[in-house]
Amino acid sequence: MMAATTVTGYSQGLTAVRNFSGDFTEDQPLTWSITTRGGYDNLKYDVPSAFLPDFESWYIQGGVGMTYTEADPVTPWSMDLDLGATHYLDDMPRYDDTFYNARVAFNLAHKLSERLKISNNFYLTYEAEPNLAFGGSTTLFNGQYLYGYNNFNVSYAWSQRFSTTTSYTVDGITYDDNLVSSFEDRLSHLVAQQFSYAISQRTTLNAEYRYRHTQFRAAGRPDFQSHFALAGLDHAWSERTTGSFRAGAEFFRSYGGWKSAPYGEIALSHQVARKTTARWFGVAGYDGAELGAYDSRYALRTGVNFHHQVTKRFGVQAGASYAYSEFDGDGAITDVTEHSLLLSTGLSYQILENLSLDTRYSYSLLDSDDAFRSFDRHNVSVGVTASF
């Protein structure tokens, strides 16, 4: 459900703020979970239509999950798996009443020598919920889609201070709905070369070049490409507080010709002895979601996720994501500006050692110059999870 989308966008390749190693800070034993959930979902458009109708329904949800992390000093790896389904008790316009969810993430790194390291980050999801954070899916509820992301990179330390990283990333999305699919299905390739110089044990300066090529499935929809020239730094304030920053220019080309605009990425992560975890990300640049007849979309996306274990049994979590988008019609159609927002909060209580209860609430909205796209949505649920 929508509340679940507040999970951090890193695993989904939020243009890959340079975190190639995954989260391998400590071992996590193989853990299985079973979740049952019930809730209420209400989505209302400013101007309802046959293609984008309102819906209001109670729902039930069930799923299983698995996590494992091996923090080996030479070959660390981790895996996450979630499978589930959501059934709406009232009819869902345009769609079946049951939606399916399957997510898998696999991160692996390996030291070939003291100087040479390779790593791979993989994520694949089949779901129905829009994800405001990573910007791959539409902002609108458009049914089931398959999204995949894989990043492979090679890092080599030429000296104690200077190193290079070469990476290749591929990601793509396809929708079950034929009409949405004809506009949104696409595949992107990103090649990057990064140069790093450590000015201290905690701070590394970076210079980077990237090239991205995106191909749409629809006949007649032109491909687009981008060149990036970036500089930035990675800094660790402590073992548990780290940050990554990139800024520069993006040179974008579509059928409207070449354009240039500022590009930037930021990611901050803070963890205090398992009790408090906070992550903030941000990215500004061109992206390919929901272009339709527009020549380009320039977007600013940012979000924060927070979790605090108040007591051994009681925890609280919250999240917020915001996106500002400018759709450029290049004179052929009217430009459109949009604001998207997702707010969520939740409480959890450990009933028994392996049994927990949680409540979630999320609110999302889209404020668009195109009145047919604007909506607001409320989702509230209660769930029980057993882990072993």
Oligomer state of the chains in this structure: single chain
Number of strands: 18
Instruction: Tell me the structural class.
Output: mainly beta
Number of domains: 1
Count up the helices: 1
CATH architecture: Beta Barrel
CATH class placement: Mainly Beta
Distance between the termini: 23 Å
Main β-sheet: number of strands, strand sense, barrel status?
A: 18 strands, antiparallel, barrel
Give the CA-based shape. Answer: globular
Taking pLDDT < 50 over at least 5 consecutive residues as the criterion, the unreliable ranges are: 1-21
Residue share in helices?
A: under 10%
What fraction strand?
over 45%
How large, in whole angstroms, is the Cα Rg?
Answer: 21 Å
Arithmetic mean of pLDDT: 90
Order of helices and strands: EEEEEEEHEEEEEEEEEEE
Features:
mainly beta; 388 residues; globular; single chain; 18 strands; Porin; 1 helix; disordered N terminus
Descriptive account of the structure:
By secondary structure, the protein is mainly β. It has one domain: Porin (Beta Barrel), CATH 2.40.160. It has one helix and 18 strands. The protein has an 18-stranded antiparallel barrel. Strand 2 and strand 3 form a beta hairpin. The longest helix is centred in the middle third of the chain and has 7 residues, at 178-184. It is globular, with a radius of gyration of 21 Å. It starts with 27 loop residues before the first strand and ends with a strand. The model is unreliable at 1-21 (pLDDT under 50).
